Amino acid sequence: LRLVLAAGALCAAPAAAFIYHDYCVLGAGPSGLQAAYFLQRAGRDYLVFERSHAPGSFFAIYPRHRKLISINKRYTGKANGEFNLRHDWNSLLSHDPRLLFRRYSRQFFPHADAMVRYLEDFAALLELRVQYDTAVVHVTLDKDPQAWNGHYFVLTDQNRQHYKCSVLLVATGTWVPNVVNFPGSEYVEGYETVSINPEDFAGQTVLILGRGNSAFETAENILGVTNFIHMVSRSRVRLSWATHYVGDLRAINNGLLDTYQLKSLDGLLEGDLEDLAIVKDKKGKLHITLRFYLENRNTSAGVDSVTLPQDELDNFATRAPYDRVIRCLGWKFDFSIYNRSLRMMPGRGNKNKYPQIKPSHESRGTRGLFVLGTASHSIDFRKSAGGFIHGFRYTTRAVHRLLENRHHGVPWPSVLRPVTQLTAAIIKRVNEASGLYQMFGVLADVVLLRENATAFEYLEEYPVGILAELETQTGRSAPEGLFVVLMEYGRNFSGADKDVFYYNRAVGEAQHAWQSNFLHPVIYYYKRLPTEREMKLRPPDWPLPRPAAIHHIVEDFLTDWTAPNAHILPLRRFLENCLGTDLRSFFAESCFLFALTRQKLPPFCQQGYARTQGLAGSERLRRHAVAAGLLEDFAAADFSGDEFPSRDQLLKDHGGPVRPLQHLLNAKDE
């Protein structure tokens, strides 16, 4: 009996050692807290693991010079909260108005400490379930056919405590410094450790490796105290106002471009960093040479025994020695904690710092593993804002909605409305929606047609990359066609080599809307849901396959698409052409006349007047309609004697045969 009990205890011990949660979230940065918020609001079983003692530990250190480049526009002239989020790049989504970032900083480019305070309050006020001081050091799979995805995720922390979860949400960001190894790279200081005191650089000559915002941020800090600064990188400088990508160089950091182009000693160079080599002389100066000069040589022998480029080319650009070399090459994802069974693979080319994921944010190698936040930026790298708070707060919500449908049978949120409200619904969204505006080309509103196009179902901010999977991913059907509403820049307007300030860069006439350059709404119409093959074969740089019809709403200087003639009328006519119906609104008098003179009433009359719905008429409203030319003033006309209008006069502006009396009596039923 003792042997049996002992054996049972041994078998039970491993199971008891695991702590189970449906959802495990790695990282309590902005994306991890955003995911936790949605899970908590849905009443799900989850836990967030954070290796530090507080949320947002990355922002406690970075950026090193403590100024964020995400804008904090506190005033827009509007009270619409959704619209204002278009210009608030720091707030996370929540129901609590106290948790808007404008309450934490008055600066347009806030101090990073304000972000740390904000994230601490976000986690505390919303009572999010975060387990601090827990570093997950290993993640593997445990196959189990009873699990949601056919396996559990097993997490092990620094104390050898084991956790099991059905879904793993990775929100750790990219925090491992990018390092390039070359001869002499041991003399290079990293962005993560270099001094931020400008006086430490007084009278020195500095070389910076890299050309992103961290490199220019470092240069900006020491620009006024150095002899000169040189910056070298593999690629040319990319200005965010030219590429329309917020991760490229922002104007707040580009002071060195002035001193370079205005010939004040500083300069930019292009070259492959792996071809470089650094040699240190007896005075501690650092000399730049090329790797092939050091072949079969001992770099420790000193600079005197090493061939330098200037020995052959006496005007070599970096012939002057440097006092310091600083590496500012950005960050990459930490793959080290994931077991090979998860098949977490880096992306290809310039996306190799991110894990490979699908447009749904799910790992390509493991079902049930989703990557959120900055680490998911491979989906829209250099295209949209998915790597930044003002972008991934919306993609995180989209992933949550996908999970709600997959594991809990909760369909994607939608509203069902009569087709007469379609124009107004689209106009409202393109003028207010922040998710469409920030995640242009990535998230879209989808309009599903219903009941022979007499109604529509409106889904907000769905990932266009998985449009072909819409029915399975959302729990909604699309049997009768659909519209997809996107925000886009002009096809050839963005790029590092583009002049975005040229004359006649903007379009103002509706007939030329397809040539719009600045961000503007684009509506795609499909008679059926595109297939996976059509998505793969879509034209280059197109977010979607070729539609049955497409409509551009002309760009607007104020990003206010409410002009009746330039914006609303062309959109309404496009929708009418696609649906083969009349989407205009009518007064009751017009609907009554249509009932007498037409075989079929317009949808507005069918869904309103014929069902005794709509606004009650009044003499004041009738006069307004007459003054606006919307109604004929029959009430004021003298129809005595021969002047009473004939049948032809009544049908003059409302062509069509007179309907039989029985049809008129059945108008309400129709």
From TrEMBL:
Where do transmembrane segments lie in this chain?
none
One Pfam match: Pyr_redox_3
InterPro entries from the xrefs? Answer: Auxin_biosynth/cation_transpt, FAD/NAD-bd_sf
Cofactors demanded by this protein: FAD
Tell me the first and last residues of the signal peptide: 1-17
List, in alphabetical order, the GO biological process terms annotated in this UniProt record.
ERAD pathway
Q: Could you say which protein family the record assigns here?
A: Belongs to the FOXRED2 family.
The UniProt subunit note reads as follows: Interacts with SEL1L. May interact with OS9 and DNAJC10. Interacts with TXNDC16.
What does the UniProt function comment say about this protein? Probable flavoprotein which may function in endoplasmic reticulum associated degradation (ERAD). May bind non-native proteins in the endoplasmic reticulum and target them to the ubiquitination machinery for subsequent degradation.
Q: What is this protein called?
A: FAD-dependent oxidoreductase domain-containing protein 2
Species annotation: Asarcornis scutulata
